[in-house]
Design a protein that fits this description.
The structure is a homodimer. By secondary structure, chain A is an alpha/beta fold. Chain A has nine helices and eight strands. In chain A, strand 2, helix 2 (about 35-45) and strand 3 form a beta-alpha-beta unit. Chain A has two domains: about 1-155, Rossmann fold; about 160-250, N-(1-d-carboxylethyl)-l-norvaline Dehydrogenase, domain 2. An eight-stranded mixed sheet of chain A has the order 3-2-1-4-5-6-7-8. Chains A and B meet through helix 5, helix 6, helix 7, helix 8 and helix 9 of A and helix 5, helix 6, helix 7, helix 8 and helix 9 of B.
């Protein structure tokens, strides 16, 4: 199977590497900047271009791994290809390709990516969605080749999962940043918090988070929360976050 | 060294066990409810009481591990003991003992505790503070016997660390709960998020959180954030949290 990758960021890089490792032939890499296309193409033993009119028409799969708002304009250039076209975005509907392409879908690896700390791709769930049987069988085959967990979810579910990921990963990492800032301000080292952070994430690998909740808010310990809010008084941004999240912990989550 | 433990909750239980394992003699366990004192005393091969007037006066160390607002009233009953008195609270000043006791301090194991998922006590940092040299040497000796990391911090630093822990652990766990709720509502399994959660915590074991930040807010990806906010529109509580944390990620953290 011949594959073209459009994009040269984290996802394109890690996914491209996983595809090569699974035995696929990456025949072309496109990036808006030729320099970036060349770097990734070199890594994947492929050809590079920065010209959308030069995209090869004979590949079996075109994976678009760019910023969400660039997917639509790039797909305008892929109307004549016969292969399957898919984007890798968690927040973009499959309908972005509607009326432009023949066989299309979504190939969304659901994980935080970083060039610094690689995760085995096999452990990353891949969520697929397809407009027709041709797209579905191609995306399924490729997904099962690179990941141990493949799920078929629709665009609304994928958006919901992406939002859940923002809460569980992006926002939690930002809370780590806030904690680090609080320690630095008081001449303490972030190392003190690292075991606690790992332990908090490890606990919910088996338990549900509600069963693992600790801290002054779940105990409704008003005295401790008052002490904390007093100490945060000169940092209104942190105080607002402290209050909103504490109140939300105190009020049980409604279940639909 | 003879130790009396006042309290029978998670911290009292786990700390008591670590002290017994380190060879200390727990001579008495007090709890407000005799039944609870009896259970912990049985576990620690100790005596139980629910009567503060019956606390033995001859111990070397009295560890008060109760809810923060009960520390003061309990310490009123310990005015005549000769040993060192310490509480285990992150949010209570050392001054809670002022004018009541002779040698006193704080012995704060800094970690989330749970009966379900035990952590080796050696890995839990213990923060100590002491009013005099007698208290300091006793607390230092005991702390080094049970933990690999012992730090001397004052009450203001301890409060700051406790607040940082609330952000990095209690609040992040609550964000996991929110994510779990979002998945359940859309017929998806929390298992999908577990690897992402662990990976997010693992990344900051080496990196600083600011360097590990990903997601639509740090990219200032307004389109994606608009899609997310639209989908959260019927859950104003989650929408408020989404907006506040996204805005805070977009605005760089000030450094003092």
């Amino acid at each position: 199977m011949k594959i073209v990758i459009l994009g040269s960021g984290n996802v394109a890089t890690i996914l491209g590497k996983a595809l090569v490792d699974a035995g696929y032939d990456i025949v072309q890499v496109w990036s808006r900047k030729f320099e970036n296309a060349k770097i990734l193409a070199g890594y994947l033993d492929s050809d590079a271009t920065d010209d959308l009119t030069q995209i090869r028409p004979d590949a079996d799969l075109y994976l678009i791994s760019v910023t969400d708002d660039a997917i639509s304009s790039i797909s305008n250039h892929l109307g004549s290809v016969k292969g399957v076209i898919a984007h890798t975005s968690g927040s973009t509907s499959i309908d972005v390709f509607s009326g432009k392409c023949a066989h299309y879908g979504v190939f969304y690896p659901f994980q935080t990516f970083s060039k610094e700390k690689p995760v085995p791709f096999k452990e990353i769930p891949v969520l697929i969605e397809a407009i027709d049987q041709t797209a579905l069988s191609t995306l399924k085959e490729v997904a099962h080749s690179v990941s141990d967990t493949v799920k078929e979810y629709n665009s609304a579910q994928r958006t919901q999962l992406h939002i859940a990921g923002v809460f569980a990963s992006n926002f939690t990492n930002h809370l780590y940043s806030i904690a680090e800032r609080l320690l630095t301000e008081s001449q303490m080292d972030f190392d003190l918090l690292r075991p606690l952070i790992l332990e908090t994430a490890t606990k919910v690998q088996r338990l549900l988070p509600e069963a693992a909740q600790t801290g002054p808010a779940i105990r409704n310990d008003r005295n401790t929360m008052a002490v904390h809010q007093k100490q945060l008084a000169n940092q209104p941004d942190l105080l607002a976050i402290y209050k909103l999240l504490s109140d939300h912990i105190i009020t049980p989550l409604p279940r639909k």
